[in-house]
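To whoever is on call:

I kicked off a structure prediction for a single chain this morning and the downstream step that reads the tokens threw a length-mismatch warning. I double-checked the sequence; it's 402 residues and nothing unusual in it as far as I can see. Pasting both halves so you can look.
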Amino acid sequence: MAGKYIEKHPDENGYFGEYGGAFLPPELVGHFKKISDLYEEISGSESFLAELRDIREHYQGRPTPVYFARNLSAKHAGANIYLKREDLNHTGAHKLNHCMGEALLAKHLGKKKLIAETGAGQHGVALATAAAYFNLECEIHMGEVDIEKEKPNVVRMEILGCKVVPVSHGLKTLKEAVDSAFEAYLKDPENSIYCIGSVVGPHPFPKMVRNFQSVVGAEAKEQFAAMTDGKLPDHVVACVGGGSNAMGIFSAFLDDKEVKLHAVEPLGTGTKLGEHAASLTFGKEGVLHGFKSTMLQTDDGEPAPVYSCASGLDYPSVGPEHAHLASKGRTIVGTASDKETIQAFFELSREEGIIPALESAHAVAYAAKIAPDHPGENILINLSGRGDKDIDFVVEKYGLPD
């Protein structure tokens, strides 16, 4: 059941406070209104929800478990660290939660083709999977830098029958992939749908993706209570690029003021523009890809170059709801550097036998940093994905620890 906050946010125009909205070219306004109207109509429909529940249980393998990381907790003596195991969701990450919902919506809209961008490749793999399930065409745009870093996911997309479109302009990463995917969608909005990969983009996508991802938070809250005699976690931690996994787990706790919500951004290699992708930490208000949020900008107001070892986090803006929650002090914004993230990647692998995605390793690194300062408290991390896609890149670039 939705809480008071969720029921009120966003407003009817897609705003979370001063952030959000839909800044669209005139030719797309009608298409996005159709998507919004149909979503509002069917999202409460028992037949739609029943089909989605069936998919989650019998196809995705939900619910995913919550796991007490006993060895990691002992190593960072202080707080008890728990993991919401989205790495065990079908395709290896949380992304399938909203991709199956978006593809089901596309089916109801009579669309024939799914178009999207991807950074780390997890959204691309998840959407290609959903397209195969619903017998739809799929086209994924991906920067050439990310194609090189995330080869296993590129191969998975191609095996699933997806057309992968390399993006060779600009920095050749996530921002450029979004630009390219939007351009492709503009050519045929009647027969295709742009399935945005996070809680970003024009209204209604930040709302839709959050709601499809809220299954993570709903499960985690119930599971954690069952493991701890009815308690709530003291801290919930998630990495934030666009922010879909974070909003998914945060959504269940937004009305529980005693639960501290930590949004962890990629600090990369430093604090200068181009060395990180920490939009909430260093950004200022701006409009990008059809929505208003906090954005990393150059002096002339253009999107700034960004960097992270995690391809799924190197985006110059952030979901408008994250900007709103941070501005109101409801979330605590933290960071993890590349160095801390790689250390956490190997640490979780060797202490718990769980190889995390580099994106998720940012959250693990941050939790390890704060654990000693919160003795006896409970930290719940959204482990948003597994690291199969990252192992070649990590070993080639950083080597194996002693």
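Update from on-call: the warning came from a stale cache, not from the record. Cleared it. Sanity check on the structure: The chain is about 45% helix and 20% strand.
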